[in-house]
Amino acid sequence: MGVCDGILMLSKNLEFITVHRKDSLSDNLAEWFVKATYEEYMEKVNGGIDVTIPVEDIVPIGGGGTYSREQFEKAQELVQQGKYQKLNREQEIEYVRKNIGVIELADKYVKCVNNINNTRTGLHLSTETNGQVILVTVWYIPVTTSEGPARLTNFTIDGATYDQGFPHNLKIQPSGYSILLHRVENSPVSIMVNTDKGATTETIPAQESSDGLGKRWLEREGGWNGIWTRRGNTNIFEALWQKHSLPDVKAVLTINRVGNNIQIARQQSTDGNNCDYVGTIAADGVTVSGTYNCDRGEKDMKWTATISND
Q: 38 has which bridge partners?
């Protein structure tokens, strides 16, 4: 996968297509598509994520639309044969904007794409943070067209843990390789990558201690993606929700935390639907889940969020 596509690993919406065997977003999506069941496909569609791959002019990626079970099975066969339309880089950017679910991550993705075109030759390392989660990407740009990739010799990471690190003897390509780290509390994180063509390092400073409300909450509820931004050091947040093809919704939130228990009052909602949320913060200190009830709609609907200090 490409250097910038590693940012998708930070998104709950698109992390399911972040595999390393394919270079393009289109191919990663196709790999997921041919292995998915119809129920898994419909779960993504109903969640507002466009996973309908265009074959035989049925419907384009990014154009919405839903396959029937019969169309889905036919499309799977054609995609497995490589008969599907791929996205160019501009179309990939638009696809990510519409589906990644977090405005902040979409902006990081676009910034990465714009910067990567100006990358000099040699070994590179970049990091992106999302709450306590850190994305680390390493890539190598050859000096000459005949030069081979850099080979990883070892790496060290202090101040963070990981479930899966860089593979032994990894060949570091221009397309890059990404892993996820989990910061230990608010400690600084240092990363060093050594290869047969040099070394690269980066240090991420310690996070400032806070009252646990963070600066921004990245939230998801019923197919809507929310970004809640804190007013200074108050417990008041400006909230914005987005869902593909529907008008944005804005509201003002009052968030109260007692221990790991959260209570939220949603008021001044532009859709006229005010709500009350309750939730619990997980042991990692940043993952929140719970239920909410509104003036309209079903009772005890589920919501999740990640607290970010970025």
A: none
Tell which of 96, 116, 136 closes a domain. 116
* CATH code: domain of residue 259: 2.40.128
Judged by DSSP in three states, 145 sits in coil
**Average pLDDT over every residue of 183-200:** 91
pLDDT one-digit tens code per residue, 160-176? 999 999 998 899 988 78
Residue 28 shares a structural domain with residue 79: yes
Residue 18 has pLDDT above 80, yes or no: no
Q: Which of 191, 180, 190, 176 is nearest to 123 (CA)?
A: 176
Half-sphere exposure for 67 (CA within 13 Å, toward CB) = 29
Dmax over CA atoms of the chain, in Å, equals 65
Spell 174-205 as b/e; 16+ CB within 10 A means b.
bbbbbbbbebeeeeebebebbbebeebeeebe
Domain that holds residue 35: 1-116
Is the domain of 199 the same as that of 226?
Answer: no
Q: What is the pLDDT of residues 209-268, one digit of tens each?
A: 567 898 899 999 988 999 999 998 889 999 999 987 789 999 999 999 988 899 999 999
Residues 240 and 291 in one domain: yes
Contact 303, 285 (CB under 8 A): no
Greater confidence (113 vs 154) lies with 154
